[in-house]
Amino acid sequence: MTYKKIVLKKGSEEFLKRFHPWVFSGAIHRMEKCEDGDNVTVYTADGELIGNGHYQLGSIAVRMLSFDDTTLDEEFYFERLLAAYNTRVALNLMRPDNNSFRLVHGEGDFLPGLVVDIYGNTAVMQAHSPGMHFARNMIANALVRMPNALVKNVYYKSETTLPYITRDTENYYIIGQYDTNIAVENGLQFHVDWLKGQKTGFFVDQRENRLLLEKYAKGRKVLNMFCYTGGFSFYAMRGGATAVHSVDSSSKAISLTRDNVELNFPGDTRHEAFAEDAFKYINEMDRSYDLIILDPPAFAKHKSALKNALIGYRKINAKAFEKIQSGGILFTFSCSQAVSKEQFRLAVFSAAAQSGRKVRILHQLTQPADHPINIYHPEGEYLKGLVLYVE
Ligand code: SAH
């Protein structure tokens, strides 16, 4: 295994000395000719070895995988995956009533550029960097070596997460094949469409927030806006909601939502699903809902879109405040990494002020523990939520 040499500008090692796992291109003094995805060793200007990582063309030039000279072979990936596995054992996520969770959350599991979600026997793996793309076979081999036969099939799904698409980045099973796509989360069943669905097929990051919602659902009329495949809806139904309406602009998502209702609550007429634009729906709906969930897609994928994203959050929240019943509860989220907790709260605050309603914060929510945040990489915090009581 060869490692190209990268030498930093004097003083640029500060962040790395504090284990921040990224090297920005501006910090590089000189380097051997590198191709996208090459393994590299990073040195300070004084020739001190910092560690090994993956090179990438662009502003984040290196994603560090070690802070020593560890070889980046299958054993390396196995050890990192095993550490991630052991954390999930500690979190008690592998139970008969729960077989879907995130096994690898990039920097949060010391594997920058890699995401692995588990659905039953299948691992859905996403490379966000060319380095992880080239390491995919080693990672897949290491995945099927996880204890207790955790993983049987490894589906590689990086068509939309890599900076470019080539023939070898097509989605495919690296190991195994399709068996079942029914996953279990807190006792509820879900069809997960990792072949065609968004992200890895399901949003495992809302698992605990859905459980909290269940506790508030009794006797309420629920609107699940941006429902995707219905995650929050089934918890609301199990919690005793009188009616649950699910809305998403994707008709595929709505059809999966309907399938999921049938799977968990066959013939239950409390649920209705609408393939509609959220802004249109909320503008036209009546004022009968007293529990509303707003879980939009990342309005800001990059810092440049921040201003418009904040306007988007303000608009949709303002409508919810305007229309929710008195004594209503609003679960509102942002999954944009580019939007900070404070900025999101400010957008929701402006929306509340605009409505003139009396609003209190009941809970402040975040991502669950299987999406850990590396303390040296605060950028890993992305999911923010508020539960609000509206009088
Ligand atoms: N709450 C979901 C995840 C939401 S992801 C869960 O728990 O699984 C965001 C969803 O918003 C996607 O399903 C996407 O199809 C939908 N979406 C994006 N833009 C939309 C719009 N303008 N109106 C309605 N839905 C939209």
Average pLDDT metric: 95
- Distance separating the two termini: 63 Å
Q: If you compute it from the alpha carbons, what radius of gyration comes out, rounded to the nearest whole angstrom?
A: 22 Å
Any idea what the shape is?
A: globular
Query: Unreliable segments (pLDDT under 50, ≥5 consecutive)?
Result: none
Strand order of the largest sheet: 16-15-14-17-18-20-19
Ligand kinds: S-adenosyl-L-homocysteine
Structural class: alpha/beta
Percentage of residues in DSSP E strands:
25-35%
Q: Share of helix among residues?
A: 25-40%
Succession of helices and strands: EHEEEEEHEEEHHEEEEHEHEHEHEHEHEE
Largest sheet: 7 strands, mixed
Could you describe the 3D structure shown?
By secondary structure, the protein is α/β, with parallel strands linked by helices. The protein is built from ten helices and 20 strands. The chain has helices at 14-17, 74-90, 130-134, 136-143, 207-216, 231-238, 251-264, 278-284, 306-323, 341-355; strands at residues 4-8, 22-24, 28-31, 39-43, 49-55, 60-64, 100-105, 114-119, 122-127, 153-156, 172-175, 182-185, 188-191, 221-225, 243-248, 271-275, 291-294, 328-334, 359-366, 384-390. The strands form four sheets. The protein has a seven-stranded mixed beta sheet with strand order 16-15-14-17-18-20-19, with helices on both faces. A six-stranded mixed beta sheet has the order 2-6-5-4-1-3. β14 (221-225), α6 and β15 (243-248) form a beta-alpha-beta unit. The longest helix has 18 residues, at 306-323. The protein is globular. 43% of the residues are buried. The mean pLDDT is 95. S-adenosyl-L-homocysteine is lined by residues 203, 206, 226-229, 231-232, 248-250, 253, 277-279, 295-297.
